[in-house]
Amino acid sequence: MKLISLLAFFLGVTAPVAGAWNLVSKVNADARGLPGAETLISAASGTASAYTTAGNPYPGNVICINATTCQFGPISASRLFNGNRTISPMGCTSYYNCGNKITDTNVTVNTRMTWEEAISAWTSRYGTSVTRTYGYAFSTDTGWTTQICAAWGTYGAAYYQLPGTDSCASPPIPPNQCDVQGASLDLNHGVLKVGAIAGSTVQATRQVKCTYVANVRYRVSEGNPFPVGLGVSTTLTVNGVKAGEMIKLPAGTSTLIIASTLTDNGAQAGEFSKTVVLIQSFM
């Protein structure tokens, strides 16, 4: 009689517990100023995701501090120099929205729900991931924010950060930018008599808004001074400084005074004009 040995193989598979989720966040290094916040607050784009996992990382019921219902979703929870946090919902598009929690990245939950039920409600509305251009807000005051952090939590009467959902990185520094507001300038000297041209000066103003204090040069595309025709040339100045030399602009909105002063190089009767471009560069 032959004995046949049977070797049984068992393939073990660990399946995720039904309804179990894990929460993650990502902050991108592409900060931009937050509208309405002037230079005090910026925001970086980022992504918040929920994916199925084994076990239950978040046992117990939803916590709404000082309330029975609240909003649940991804939040910015950046670390401050004194160890505290500055918290706002993900998706603030302006300083007003941050302060009033008006975003499209949350769902309403209550303290009778488990965390897993809250996450399921969120994924039912948004899917497993959301990305926002103005994702996570943080302070840009020097030395104020030590780390920009993303997390998940509840908010309403107060914020509650869900443990184990923190993700932090060094704060991205918004690039300095100075935007000149308004259309092209027309520096019109009007009607001048031959022999009374030298020294004629006209000026115009424009508003300029800088992210931070900036050392800026405004160079003239044609050189400075430059000929405008009929034996006449002009020198442009910006805020009293000859264009091409460095000026210092404050953070926020200030005024640019752009002036043209004529030189007579053997002027002739007739009309003269010239179009040039001011080129802005940072030092």
Q: Any low-confidence stretches, pLDDT <50, length ≥5?
A: 1-18
Mean pLDDT: 84
Specify the helix fraction band.
under 10%
Q: What can be said about the biggest beta sheet? A: 6 strands, antiparallel
What is the number of helices? Answer: 2
The 3D shape can be described as: rod-shaped
What's the helix-strand series?
EEEEEHEHEEEEEEEEEEEEE
Number of E strands: 19
Q: What is the rounded distance between the termini?
A: 95 Å
Radius of gyration: 31 Å
Strand percentage lies at: 35-45%
SS-based class = mainly beta
Keywords: Signal
Signal peptide: 1-20
InterPro entries: Adhesion_dom_fimbrial_sf
GO cellular component, one term: pilus
Please explain how this structure is put together.
The chain has 283 residues and is mostly beta strands. Helix content is 6%, strand content 44%. The chain has two helices and 19 strands. The chain has helices at residues 95-100, 115-126; strands spanning 21-27, 32-33, 41-52, 69-80, 85-89, 107-110, 129-139, 145-155, 160-161, 167-169, 178-180, 201-210, 214-220, 226-229, 232-238, 241-242, 246-249, 252-264, 278-282. Strands 4, 5, 6, 8, 9 and 10 form a six-stranded antiparallel sheet that branches. β2 (32-33) and β3 form a beta hairpin. The chain is rod-shaped, with a radius of gyration of 31 Å. Mean pLDDT is 84; it is low at 1-18. Keywords: Signal. Residues 1-20 form the signal peptide.
